[in-house]
UniProtKB/TrEMBL annotation:
PANTHER family: GOLGIN CANDIDATE 5. It comes from the Eukaryota. This is Golgin candidate 5. The keyword Coiled coil applies. The keyword Coiled coil applies.
Length: 135
């Protein structure tokens, strides 16, 4: 295409010196060269549009993938939080049961200690009676 323009420049600058080529032919050649150049530019423009659209698709795909990864991380974190909450609830329930069990056992121990004291006092009283009755 460039060679056509280079070829035509001398004819356009000095058309009278080359009488065997008419101005009409020169004009047609120049129009054809310009049309070819315009077609080439249009093709390049279309190719650039395709490349730009490919880049946009690539960028949107990357953004989508990034958002999915972030969503998966958040979803995973939410699942972990839910599991930890369940574990905390279970541990708190177990702790409450153990606390009740401990309170019950402590009450039982107080009763048993009280009974031991009573039995020891009864034992002292009986030993005292036994000693008194032996003498």
């Amino acid at each position: 295409m460039e060679w056509r323009l280079a070829f035509l420049k001398p004819f356009l600058v000095q058309p009278s010196s080359h009488h065997w080529i008419s101005e009409n032919i020169l004009t047609q050649l120049f129009i054809r060269a310009k049309a070819d150049e315009i077609m080439k530019l249009m093709n390049e423009n279309e190719q650039l549009k395709v490349v730009i659209e490919d880049l946009r698709v690539y960028a949107f795909t990357n953004e989508r993938d990034t958002l999915r990864r972030e969503q998966n991380k958040k979803s995973y974190a939410a699942t972990l939080v839910k599991k930890k909450d369940e574990i905390i609830t279970q541990v708190m329930a177990e702790g409450e049961q153990l606390s009740k069990k401990q309170a019950f056992q402590e009450a039982q121990m107080r009763k048993l200690r009280s009974q031991i004291r009573e039995l020891e006092e009864e034992k002292k009283g009986l030993l005292t009676k036994l000693e008194v009755s032996h003498f």
